Amino acid sequence: MVINPSLSRLKLPPKPKFNPNSILPSKPSHRLLPHRGFPPLRSSVFQDQFPTGDARTTGDNGDDDGSYGEVNKIIGSRTVSTPVFNDDGSVSASIATEYLIEWKDGHEPSWVPASSIAADVVAEYETPWWTAAKKADAAAISSLLADESTTRDPDAEDSEGRTALHFAAGLGSEECVRVLAAAGADLEKKERAAGGLSALHVAAGYGRAGAVRVLVEAGADVGAVDGRGRTALEVAKEVLAATPKGNPAAFGRRMGLEGVIRELEKEVFEYAEVGKVVDVRGEGERREYLVEWRDGGEREWVKERWVAEDVVRDFEEGLEYGVAEKVVGRREGEEGEGVEYLVKWVDLEEATWEPAENVDAELVEEFERANGNGSPSTAAVAVVPVEEEEEEVPVQ
Questions:
Q1: Using alpha carbons only, what angle is made at residue 195 by residues 191 and 201, rounded to the nearest 5 degrees?
Q2: C-alpha torsion angle, residues 73, 79, 80, 85 (rounded to 10)
Q3: Mean pLDDT, the chain, as a whole number?
Q4: Residue 75 has what DSSP assignment?
Q5: Range among 153-162, 214-223, 278-287 with highest mean pLDDT value
Q6: Which part of the chain has CATH 2.40.50.40?
Q7: Where is the composition biased (Acidic residues) (predicted)?
Q8: CATH architecture, domain defined by 272-316
Q9: What is the edge-to-edge ordering of all strands in the sheet holding 339-345?
């Protein structure tokens, strides 16, 4: 039986040698159905990145002479990127979609350009995936990925480069994000239409704190930038700044964005603790610091915005850092300068007197408790014999 014979016949290409492993595309697929499920954000900073409209293509099946085969179904897809050399000398990419066709006559499956396939055949393959994607239907996505009769690429793209993960992130479906991440979806994949946004950027811009948390747990890079050079944290802050205060309709959005900012700041600023800054390079937005990590990791160049202001300030003022082992003494500073503590350092032979603000609060508390004192502001002076020292360099 032939279903829609007028729309289901294609001219067969020469028989290729079929490799079953080639069903899975090496690059994300170029998919077709549009998204309609995102609530609009009334912000010029982060508009609705998923406009409505029918983006489906129609095939041109012509009646050229030659032998034709009847299409059974599409069992896979892939995106083919071809370099295009422009008149000005630049190189761009021409992106086209190909589908892996299963033929009714037993001809080995073969790749056929999307433009040569009828719209009904394409829709039969594409519609279930994008219907599930635009609803962030985790159960349907899971079922399609598990279907052994067809190959589903979790990184399949629509006509603007958006994947199911972009939709799940924008709708805030934590379950769907987990399903796609477990299936191997590319967490860093950037769409093409709205400025190179990753799923993390989309979740951040729509104030989906739960989706942000799941993406980060799955390994999404919080430092990755979009096409405008913004991190997800910066996107969330921009949208929050553009969202009106005191407007009941915007209250939920502000709460969501604030939750996103807390999640991302926790990851950015607690990811690693800087021991000290040892060098600097660049100016303005390109300014970077060479940092030494407290956990002993290899030194790295880090953008200025990711280094704590007090650490940068101390480096610029020429202050040195050391690792304190413990506090061994306490005294009142000269001329009302406040309390000073005698600190024993891990990497220095001699202990030094340091202002209270230069000493780790936990070490101070431990010292005061061991000496039976009250709060640091009222504690008695611990009598510790110390030799007079030469001029000191402030150490933190």
A1: 70
A2: 140
A3: 75
A4: E
A5: 214-223
A6: 272-316, 322-396
A7: 386-396
A8: Beta Barrel (2.40)
A9: 324-332, 339-345, 352-355
Question: Is the pLDDT at 388 greater than 80, yes or no?
Answer: no
- Nearest alpha carbon to residue 8 among 151, 113, 116: 116
Given this model, what pLDDT does residue 201 score? 96
Q: What's the token pair of residue 351?
A: 């202990």
Residue 239 CB partners (closer than 8 Å, separation 6+): 41, 43, 45, 46, 204, 205, 207, 257
Name the residue among 122, 23, 131, 127 with its Cα closest to residue 74.
122
Angle at 202 between CA 196 and CA 204, to 5 degrees: 125
Which range, 128-142, 192-206, 280-294, 343-357, is most confident?
Answer: 128-142
Q: In which band, very low, low, confident or very high, does the pLDDT at 272 lie, cut at 50, 70 and 90?
A: low
Lowest-confidence segment of 151-165, 174-188, 201-215 by average pLDDT: 151-165
Question: 3-state DSSP: the chain helix, strand, coil percent, rounded to 5?
Answer: 35, 20, 45
- In contact, 151 and 76? CB cutoff 8 Å: yes
Q: Does the pLDDT of residue 225 top 60, yes or no?
A: yes
For residue 237, give the nearest of 38, 43, 39, 37 by alpha carbon. 43
Q: Which residues pair with 71 in a beta bridge?
A: 103
How wide is the angle at C-alpha 61 spanned by C-alphas 56 and 66, nearest 5°? 155
Look up residue 219 and give its DSSP letter: T
- The residue ranking higher by pLDDT, 111 or 294, is 111
Question: Are 164 and 154 a contacting pair, CB within 8 Å?
Answer: yes
Q: CATH 1.25.40.20 occupies which residues in the chain?
A: 5-269
Tokens of 108: 């080995």
Q: Residue 391 burial by CB count (10 A; 0-12/13-18/19+): exposed, middle or buried?
A: exposed
How many CB atoms are located within 10 Å of the residue 74 CB? 22
Tell me which residue of 106, 104, 102, 84 sits closest to 93, measured CA to CA.
Answer: 84
Specify the CATH number of the domain 5-269.
1.25.40.20
Which candidate, 220, 166, 175, places its Cα nearest to that of 197? 166
